[in-house]
Structure formats: structure tokens, C-alpha cells
Specification:
PNGase F N-terminal domain-containing protein; outer membrane lipoprotein receptor (LolB), chain A; about 40% strand; PHM/PNGase_F_dom_sf; signal; mainly beta; 2 domains; Cu2_ascorb_mOase-like_C; 13-stranded mixed beta sheet; six-stranded antiparallel beta sheet; Jelly Rolls
């Protein structure tokens, strides 16, 4: 057999060191076969992934990739060492240049069960194969393996005891198939385990249990930007638990933190993750995660909502529509940019703090997780300095506790192939124009409710484009409020949007699935008809949910002056009760 020079990365050395207790150093250089595998989906090659490489010897096999073996793989990268006869599977992951983790499993291989298909077979690379079938997580897997060669191994952890797997087919359309087999001689595993030649520094691994290993590896595949941890959002002039870098406004109902966003690579996806629980407040409250650009092209020199937070609501520009009331900071002007809302959310009735209110058959959740894709906004703020804030409207000194993270997931060819929507591809010259946000984030600092829809004019925003805007869309979030029988919280109301005076889009924002979130609402009121308050349908929100944006196509907009109008038939006041509509809109385009 030809002698092929192989250089294993440091991660292989680490694995062999861990495995040294299970097998003594080889007395002579190991010989075996090196196989290359290609992935295809619906008959087409899967782009953007390094080809799988299998090093299969008589008693062990290494699953790797060409770039890893060459020491050129990006972090994180993973390899798997398998001893079929001993039933041992060692997985190793190099997370970065200074951190390596590993996990050893002596049970997984023994649990694999296959149905041998005697009547079927095929020939791959000149070797006659037999077929074995199994089901993994509802996926039907067929393995084509041969016993004609003196080694065993597979391109995944499946089938190493069967023989040499030359093809794996999942659900009939995803295929991993061997494309090349060559011999190797001179890979002395025992010598390599004691520190053979390598270009990468040796990094001692952390040996973890299986779940911990998978969690660490998963988290290393994306960037997490922590914003708030155990942060109280309450109504109090005093900050009971100060956090470094966090500023409180509006008597503690708004928390803000300034951070520098990293450069977000084209094709990446960005999410906001919020975890909330009651710290004393029993009610469903309006919440908003928002961002204020501080130093960005198109916003530099403009006033922003930051002026109102720092100097009071009177520092924000005035908006009037003829209904006799005045609203501050809700629409864009030539010199002012309103808040950019990342996510509208609603707290449930007292999750965690009121879990002692027991009902038979109800096991309350400990917190509410909210997660929203904000790629279209975040990619347009790439590399900028921003203030990220959270508002929860409440008058409780305990209030709520939150954790907030932003996560950035770099472009991945496999993710793109299976699920990534085309609309998440960043524009060549991305544009972000905040137009309006009527949520009274400074409610506890005397910012008025958005009741401007009680007259036909509703909300009207004028803006000027210095140049044409292609593929423009309005990211629109709308929720209705007025928490009594005839209030707009419980009355479906049509939202109509106009562009330059012409009807553009109309819909009725409404949620009918609120009962599905009952276990987040231990303090929800119960009625004589058997329903809970948290069960009731509402104007585009439920206690314990986030509200999805609606994307409205604006087409290609010409340079010059434009007007966007929002009209809603807001219900009339009844005594001290009134309705309001929290709507936010930003234009994205290129």
C-alpha cells in the first residue's frame, strides 16, 4: 500500500491521550484506509462544508475533515474517535486556540440497533455493499456497508460495528457517500498519543459529560452578547441592585446599556433572547426591547429618544393631529429619530413570584422565554455604538427580573440550504429609517398614551429620501390596549396603512391562541364561565408572548418627500377608561 504522509491536528493528540488508559501504545505503525465522503441533498452537492474524512484501521477509526487534519479548520471543529470492539466513542472539540473539550461514551455504540436488509445491496467504489436500516429521531437512515475490506468505520457515529460504511442515506434525499479510498501506512497512534509532530500547540482538554459537552460546543458556534442579567425593572426611584454599565430611567421602568455591536458578516442571522419573571408584579404588562443608535451614519447629529430619557419627556419633539392632545417623541422629524423597536413583548400574570397560587393539574413555569429574529435591523447597525434598552410598564416596587442577550449566528451553508429565508440576506447598501413608535416607553415619566387614533387622521409621518430606495419594506408592529369589555384590547380593529395618500395595506391584528400560555399565568383571574383572563383573545398579544412584526412591501421609493399614515378606528372613552394603540414602524431597504 502507498505510504501517505498524515499530520493529525492537536485535537487528535488530545483524544489519544485521554484514551491512553483504554489502549496501550501500538507496537508498530498502524495501517488502514483513508476515505473521503461527499454530502449531497436532492442530488446536489452541499456547499460550504469541508468534506468528511475517515481514517479506518483494524481496531479504531477517526472521523474528521480535510481542513482539520491539515490544521486549517476554523473554530470550532470536532473529531470523533471510535473503538467498535470496545464500544467506546470519544468526541473532541477544539472551541478556540486555547480551549478544547472532550466526552467519552461507552454506551452509545452498544445501543444502536439495525434491521439488516438481506435482499438489497449495491456496489460502491468497486465494493459490494449490504444495507442496514435504522430510525433516529423519526429519521429513516440506511447504511450501505461492506465487509470486503479489513477495516471498520463510518462517516458518522452510526454503524461502526457493521463494517466499513460507504454510504449513509437519510430520508431518501440526504446522502453521505464515499468518493475515494486510499491506503495509509505509518500512523503510529501510540507514538502520536505521546506528543507526535504537529503545527498546533497541545491544549489539555476538559473531559465533560455528554450533555455538557454538547452544550459547550453548541454555544461556541455563535456569538453571544450579554446585555442584562438578573436585572430588575420596577417602579422605584432607588436602584436596589445596581448593575455595572446599566442606567435606569422613568423611575426604574426603563433600563439601558450602551454597547458596541461587532461587525456582522453578510448572511449572518441575529436574534434577541429575553427571559422574564415576576419579581413582585402580578399583572400582564407591555414590554419593549429597543435600540437607540448613538453614532451612526444617518443618525449622527440628530436628536433621539435618548434626549427624553436623559432630560425629560419635554425634550422630545411634539406631535399633534388635531384631536386636542399632544404626544412627545412618537414620530420622526427632520432632526429627530424615534426608538427602533426590536421586540414587543407582554409579561404574564405573575410567573414565578406567584407560583404558590396552586391549582390542581397546573404546574406553573418558572420564567417566560422570548426570542425574536432581528437580522434585518441588526445587520443595518453592524459595527455601531448603540444603547439597548428594555421597558416594562409597571407600578410595582418589586417589578420584574430579566435576562437579555443578543446572539449572532454566522452564515452556514447547511443552515441556508434547509431553512434560511431569502429575505434575511443583507442588502448591498442597507438602509434603516425609523419612522414612528407610539409605545409610551416613558409612561412612568409622564409620556402620554397613544390615543391619537380617535380621529380619522390617525398617525401621519413625513420623511425625505435623499436618494432612491430599492426593495423598501415597512417593519410594522401593532398592539391594541384598553383593558375593559369594550376596550380595544378585546375588540378586533382594522389597521390601515397608506403611502403618499394611497391605501397600502390593511389587516386586523388579533391573537386567538392566548389559552395556550395558561401555565405562564399563575395570578390570572378566573371567571364564572371557566375561563381565565389569560385565555381571552386580544389585539395581537397574549400575556406571556411576543408580537411578531408584519412586513409591508413599499416597492422602490423615489428620492424626495413621502408620507406614511396609520389609521385605526380607536374605541371611545368610557368614564376613566380609554383605548390606545402601540404601533412602531421602521423602513428597511437598500
Amino acid at each position: 500500500m502507498p505510504n501517505l504522509t498524515l499530520r493529525l491536528s492537536a485535537i487528535v493528540l488530545i483524544g489519544l491521550c485521554i484514551w491512553a488508559f483504554a489502549a496501550p501504545a501500538a507496537a508498530a505503525p498502524t495501517e488502514g484506509l483513508k476515505l473521503h465522503y461527499q454530502r449531497t441533498y436532492n442530488g446536489k452537492p452541499v456547499e460550504g462544508e469541508d468534506a468528511i474524512v475517515l481514517l479506518a484501521a483494524r481496531s479504531e477509526a477517526l472521523i474528521s475533515a480535510e481542513a482539520v487534519l491539515a490544521g486549517k479548520a476554523a473554530f470550532p471543529h470536532e473529531q470523533t474517535l471510535v473503538k467498535p470492539a470496545a464500544g467506546e466513542l470519544l468526541q473532541l472539540a477544539r472551541l478556540n486556540s486555547s480551549e478544547t473539550i472532550a466526552t467519552l461514551d461507552r454506551e452509545a455504540l452498544g445501543k444502536q440497533r439495525f434491521e439488516l436488509i438481506e435482499s438489497e445491496g449495491k456496489t460502491i467504489l468497486g465494493h459490494r455493499c449490504r444495507i442496514a436500516r435504522t430510525v433516529v429521531n423519526s429519521n429513516t437512515i440506511e447504511l450501505c456497508y461492506t465487509n470486503e475490506l479489513p477495516v471498520a468505520g463510518a462517516p458518522t457515529v452510526l454503524g461502526h460495528q457493521l463494517g466499513l460504511v460507504l454510504e449513509l442515506v437519510r430520508n431518501g434525499n440526504f446522502v453521505i457517500r464515499a468518493t475515494q479510498i486510499e491506503a495509509f501506512l505509518g500512523l503510529d497512534l501510540g507514538a502520536m498519543a505521546q506528543g507526535g509532530s504537529t503545527d498546533e500547540p497541545f491544549v489539555a482538554p476538559a473531559l465533560l459529560d455528554g450533555p455538557s459537552y454538547k452544550d459547550r460546543l453548541w454555544k461556541s458556534r455563535f456569538t453571544t452578547i450579554p446585555v442584562f442579567q438578573d436585572q430588575i425593572v420596577n417602579f422605584s426611584e432607588q436602584d436596589r441592585e445596581p448593575r455595572e454599565g446599566v442606567t435606569r430611567y422613568a423611575n426604574g421602568t426603563v433600563v439601558l446599556k450602551t454597547l458596541q455591536l461587532p461587525e456582522i458578516q453578510p448572511g449572518s442571522q441575529v436574534f434577541v433572547d429575553l427571559l422574564a419573571r415576576s419579581n413582585g408584579d402580578a399583572y400582564d404588562r407591555t414590554g419593549s426591547v429597543f435600540v437607540i443608535p448613538l453614532k451612526s451614519q444617518g443618525h449622527a447629529g440628530k436628536r433621539s429618544f435618548m434626549d427624553g430619557l436623559q432630560y425629560g419627556v419635554a425634550a422630545l419633539p411634539l406631535y399633534q393631529n388635531g384631536n386636542g392632545r399632544s404626544y412627545r417623541g412618537v414620530v420622526a422629524t427632520e432632526g429627530y429619530a424615534p426608538l427602533i423597536e426590536l421586540m414587543r413583548f407582554f409579561t404574564p400574570f405573575g410567573v414565578k413570584h406567584f407560583n404558590h397560587l396552586q391549582l390542581k393539574g397546573k404546574t406553573w413555569h418558572e420564567a417566560v422565554p422570548y426570542r425574536m429574529d432581528i437580522t434585518d435591523i441588526a445587520t443595518r447597525l453592524s459595527g455601531q455604538t448603540v444603547a439597548v434598552g428594555v421597558f416594562i410598564g409597571n407600578y410595582d416596587q418589586g417589578g420584574h427580573k430579566i435576562d437579555l442577550n443578543l446572539t449572532i449566528h454566522a452564515s452556514d451553508a447547511a443552515t441556508a440550504m434547509y431553512s434560511k429565508p431569502q429575505e434575511h440576506k443583507p442588502a448591498a447598501s442597507p438602509v434603516l429609517i425609523p419612522l414612528f413608535n407610539t409605545t409610551n416607553v416613558m409612561e412612568m415619566a409622564k409620556q402620554d398614551y397613544a390615543t391619537m387614533f380617535d380621529v380619522p387622521k390617525g398617525l401621519e409621518v413625513k420623511f425625505t429620501l435623499a436618494r432612491p430606495l430599492k426593495n423598501a419594506r415597512l417593519r410594522y408592529i401593532a398592539t391594541g390596549h384598553g383593558g375593559w369589555t369594550n376596550g380595544d384590547e378585546f375588540q378586533p380593529k382594522k389597521n390601515t396603512l397608506l403611502l403618499d395618500g394611497k391605501p397600502l395595506f390593511a389587516f386586523v391584528p388579533w391573537r386567538q391562541d392566548c389559552g395556550a400560555y395558561r401555565l405562564f399565568n399563575p395570578a390570572s383571574g378566573n371567571f364564572n364561565d371557566g375561563l381565565s383572563s389569560s385565555d381571552l383573545s386580544r389585539s395581537n398579544w397574549c400575556p406571556g408572548t411576543a408580537t411578531n412584526p408584519v412586513y409591508i412591501d413599499l416597492g422602490d421609493l423615489k428620492a424626495g418627500r413621502h408620507v406614511v399614515s396609520v389609521r385605526i378606528p380607536q374605541g371611545a372613552r368610557e368614564g376613566e377608561s380609554f383605548s390606545a394603540w402601540n404601533v412602531s414602524g421602521v423602513v428597511v431597504g437598500e
